[in-house]
Amino acid sequence: MIPDSLIDGYKSFLGDRFARERLRYETLAETGQSPEILVIGCCDSRVSPEVIFDAGPGELFVVRNVANIVPPYETSGQFHGTSAAIEFAVEALKVRHVVVMGHANCGGIRSFAQKSAPLSSGDFIGRWMSIIAPAADTLEDPGEVPSEDYMARLNLAAVEQSLANLMTFGSVRRRVNAGEMELHGAYFGVATGHLLVRDPATHRFEPVVTDVGVPPSLFRSY
Amino acid sequence: MIPDSLIDGYKSFLGDRFARERLRYETLAETGQSPEILVIGCCDSRVSPEVIFDAGPGELFVVRNVANIVPPYETSGQFHGTSAAIEFAVEALKVRHVVVMGHANCGGIRSFAQKSAPLSSGDFIGRWMSIIAPAADTLEDPGEVPSEDYMARLNLAAVEQSLANLMTFGSVRRRVNAGEMELHGAYFGVATGHLLVRDPATHRFEPVVTDVGVPPSLFRSY
Amino acid sequence: MIPDSLIDGYKSFLGDRFARERLRYETLAETGQSPEILVIGCCDSRVSPEVIFDAGPGELFVVRNVANIVPPYETSGQFHGTSAAIEFAVEALKVRHVVVMGHANCGGIRSFAQKSAPLSSGDFIGRWMSIIAPAADTLEDPGEVPSEDYMARLNLAAVEQSLANLMTFGSVRRRVNAGEMELHGAYFGVATGHLLVRDPATHRFEPVVTDVGVPPSLFRSY
Amino acid sequence: MIPDSLIDGYKSFLGDRFARERLRYETLAETGQSPEILVIGCCDSRVSPEVIFDAGPGELFVVRNVANIVPPYETSGQFHGTSAAIEFAVEALKVRHVVVMGHANCGGIRSFAQKSAPLSSGDFIGRWMSIIAPAADTLEDPGEVPSEDYMARLNLAAVEQSLANLMTFGSVRRRVNAGEMELHGAYFGVATGHLLVRDPATHRFEPVVTDVGVPPSLFRSY
């Protein structure tokens, strides 16, 4: 049976949020969605984009894969789920913003840094995570046991890689160059709740709010 | 610049939900995630799994792609985002439930039914949606203009297809057959808020709550 | 037998240029090469980088393939000649400049725009030229017979694509972001001898010399 | 900014060579190229084919990759730059001669002989140079530190390998066997300026000019 927690959660949603936003859901069903923002986030259970950005229905078009990765534009192979979602968001929905959002403690990034053994003979995770290999090339060798600081920087370097990969899509490049769409990098610290946003000029990730009340040592920029 | 709506939403999250659940986030960062449920949902901006199931941090491992599709196990090509996420959830996180959740008014399903022209030369959406072709084969020919009823049934048939594709993964099959993991199908009606859940015995999708107060005509089971 | 034209040309080189630059060749053989510039040019017989830039031995590290293309960083398949050359130039030679140089009347670009039939069952040209498909997506549909103006713009859009693809190489990104290396786009007009160089701020290609004495109509910027 | 040396070189080309050969460039732009010779050369900055063969515009169709390698005909993977160039030269331009030109002091060949560590995680150079492994198998084991004589012989063996690989292309084999096209091997000594050409009967590389005035010891045949 489907878990009770899902049924209970759904009833809570029905009685509370859906009851309050009912008209919005009805209108969105009738008119179709027209979100302005595409978020490429991680599958991780701690980093729901709708929760972190307190977003309502119709606001965020959300792709979630392991480690919030954008592959380069390449058409070998048959099924490209993330590239399909980007194509749909950019060409059909014409979103105005794309946010690649990394987060601390990402298991996919960690499995790459630790050179984990394949989980199955298909080695889907190993091949998927290999997309960030050129990002790791931009950092120093982490040694046997990657430090937490290294892990955070690898996460941000992977966001940079995904932003570069996005620009290999002709549709993305055309709309960015025409000023019709912007690309953003972000990073959520699960433990501290801090959100870093990439400065497009300096490529540094800086906190958007500086008075969250967390120890400064956990709140650095990169 | 990153949209103000995201910054404002984040501040609201920080002051409200994160403030209330801070300990949980801290603990989850320390101990790592151990969700019991994998949800495979659509990118659509109206169907956030965390919202619909009123789920807290750590509860749902969420893959989102266009039309909540699971491809069959196949290893040609290099990058398989959804298969990587399934492999990670099943083999590393050892989730106990997998929910494939379709929804009404899905643009990806519609583009397939209407045989839309490619959005770009890569035709990522076209190739991605071709995964549901065998699902369409289980239904009658929709004619030139597919009816809304046909669209709903195609959506559910696509969920069935994804459930069958899940069973092509050896790791999924092994854990399901050992009673360690269950597969579920679900369907969310955006306009009405109803949630249908697939009965594993009859393969019919039935409402989990029957007194939402929506017109019965919008609330049928399939 | 090897063509006489090559033997005659070699004798002319020996008696003239090699005689004059002998010391330089000897020194370069002893110390090894240390070019500061990587040029990615076309195989076309009319666009030798050493001729157009009047470059001496040791100055230009030159990759030449059909249509001066950089593929995205992707490691499926076994042999990546251009990616290998980029890796060598960037990581071993540490060049300071990379120039992607397109040219007018490119047969590879034309075969793509005209959707030419495969030349052999391997369809190497068709698959190679497919790298510029996302560049074509940034332009309007050329119709049945692409205009010369369209061809020129497709050529420049393909240079843009290659510049974006270069940024998917971690080593390129690291050195560019550190200010250690610059990427440039250029375009040579075979008939007029004009050279356009891409302005990194506006992404427009502008003539570097404006008094060549060619009709202005043949000398526009893009 | 694009390096001044390129701008200065281009101005020199414009005022000198282009001024003298202007009609030829104009004609070549109008009629298209029809080179009779394909040269497969190295990216090395010291071995420009147009310089060494004193060739004018329209004469040489030039592929340049690391170590002037022809891969075998194989179609796994998506992008085959060198095979695409060969296909274009042989099938579309119908060249009458193909010259594979090696050279002394080749960094790619050296990195193979010394089993250098990968330059990046993609290891593009390592995989590319693995094409000459069967060439190395035709020579004795070089020991820890390969001698210069071994390096020269490995270079020539790699040219032999590329000539054999060329014959794995059906189109090449057909035209060679029909007497419509010839394959040649050549080798340029950077320090001495000597050019060796392969004798198709003996497979030995012999100097084409014997009175260059270099010490005989640097001028042996192989």
Automatic annotation (TrEMBL), chains A, B, C, D:
Listed Pfam families: Pro_CA
Catalytic activity entry: hydrogencarbonate + H(+) = CO2 + H2O
Cofactor list: Zn(2+)
InterPro entries tied to this protein: Beta_CA_cladeB, Carbonic_anhydrase, Carbonic_anhydrase_CS, Carbonic_anhydrase_sf
Top-level class of the enzyme under EC nomenclature: lyase
Entry keyword set: Lyase, Metal-binding, Zinc
EC number: 4.2.1.1
Residue runs in coiled coils: none
Family of the protein in this entry: Belongs to the beta-class carbonic anhydrase family.
Role description: Reversible hydration of carbon dioxide.
UniProt protein name: Carbonic anhydrase
